Amino acid sequence: MKRFLTLLFVILVFSLSSYAQKNKGLLLKLLGDMPKPPPLTVDTLGKVSIDGGWRYKIRYLSEDSNTYFHSPKDYIDAYLFIPRHTKDTKLPAIIAIHQDGAHNYIGKDEPAGIAGDEDQHYGIELFKRGYIVICPDRFCHGNRRRIANPDTTADLWNEGTILSIEHWGGQLLSIGRTAMGKEVYDLERTMDVLYSIPAVDKSRIGAIGHSAGGNALAYFMFADPRVKLGVSSCGVFEMANWYDEKAPMKRYTFTVIPNFVNVARTSDFVALIAPRPFLMTRGLWEWGQETDEEKTKSIDHVKATRLLYNEALPYYATLKSGKDLKVIYFDEDGGRHAFPTKLKRQVYEWIDSYLKN
Q1: CA 124 to CA 157: how far, in whole Å?
Q2: pLDDT 10s per residue in the chain (357 long)?
Q3: Which residues of 265-282 are buried (b: 16+ CB within 10 A; e: fewer)?
Q4: What distance in Å separates the CA atoms of residue 217 and residue 231, rounded to the nearest whole number?
Q5: CA within 20 to 30 Å of 148's CA: 110, 196, 230, 323, which one?
Q6: Per-residue DSSP letter, 92
């Protein structure tokens, strides 16, 4: 009987693996065509000694110029934190992905602890815990905004910024790509940078992101098996609900993934992250709780997260890694759309439990 059950389990896992690979191919197609990456070139723009190590400002090539749209070469600016270490030491590493919203102009500076909200300084905080950390600008953020006078902070999430992103998004859709696919591709290039650093332990690389950065992280982790662990802070959500007439707000078209609702749910992407550890956080009152309408939106947001988790969990459970898919619902600091101190401490300890042991 025991031998039969063992054989049955092996057959089930094999069948599930085949099913997963077939579906992963379908989901990857949803993200759109990916360009052939150019040879990796990394330039150091600056180096500063800080307590515990060094902070580098670097720039690396994401994509070559597009002659059809007359667009220039696409470079990514990033901050790279490297702790002091002895020769031949291998350290765990983290990709820290910033949010957007009104902080569109800040980009990488926020997780790097240079600007923005203190609760968003998770990049430098993880560096202080002994991680090599890279904080890249997402496309259309920070130094990658295709607007006039991109070095000013005057242009926030306003019409000029939106038109620029919509324009770039239109270029991507015109050639069979998507904005989410672009985010995934750029983060894969960031992973290439980490892989080029001798001190990085390639078996211990994680990623963390808040809000839109945490949403992009889920698709990135799904697509790139080199990411061994992920934390989505108030980030990943069910994309099938994004353009619903009952959605809390109207959305721009540059975020669309064509044909998404006909093929998949976001929980499918999260499920196929398994068996790698994936942690989501969700504030109980991210849409507010001052009015009945705000309370309803917040409660629905939490319900959608519970559903996403419950839909992804069976695949994790089948691979005997159910404990590695986790959601933390929090009421700290009013349960708002944030990354409060006590929650961060809990998340960092969770990261350490996997990447430091």
Answers
A1: 25
A2: 555 444 444 444 434 444 455 589 999 999 999 999 999 999 999 999 999 999 999 999 999 988 788 888 999 999 999 999 998 999 999 999 999 877 778 999 999 999 999 999 999 999 999 999 999 999 888 888 776 555 555 445 566 677 778 888 888 999 999 999 999 999 999 999 999 999 999 999 999 999 999 999 999 999 999 999 999 999 999 999 989 888 888 888 888 999 999 999 999 999 999 999 999 999 999 999 999 999 999 999 999 999 999 999 999 999 999 999 999 999 999 999 999 999 999 999 999 999 997
A3: bbbbbbbbbbebbbbbbb
A4: 8
A5: 110
A6: E
Q: Which residue has the tokens 């705000």?
A: 294
Dist CA 136 CA 224 (whole Å): 17
Distance in angstroms (rounded) separating the CA atoms of residues 93 and 127: 9
What torsion, rounded to 10 degrees, do the Cα atoms 282, 283, 289, 293 define? -10
DSSP character string of 294-341: HHHHHHHHHHHHHHHHHHHHHHHHHTT-GGGEEEEEE-GGGG-SS--H
Q: Which of 313, 353, 168 is nearest to 255 (CA)?
A: 168
Q: For residue 130, how far is the Cα from the chain centroid?
A: 21
**E-strand spans in the chain?**
42-50, 53-63, 74-83, 91-97, 132-136, 200-210, 229-233, 278-283, 325-330
Do residues 273 and 291 make contact, with C-beta atoms less than 8 angstroms apart?
A: no
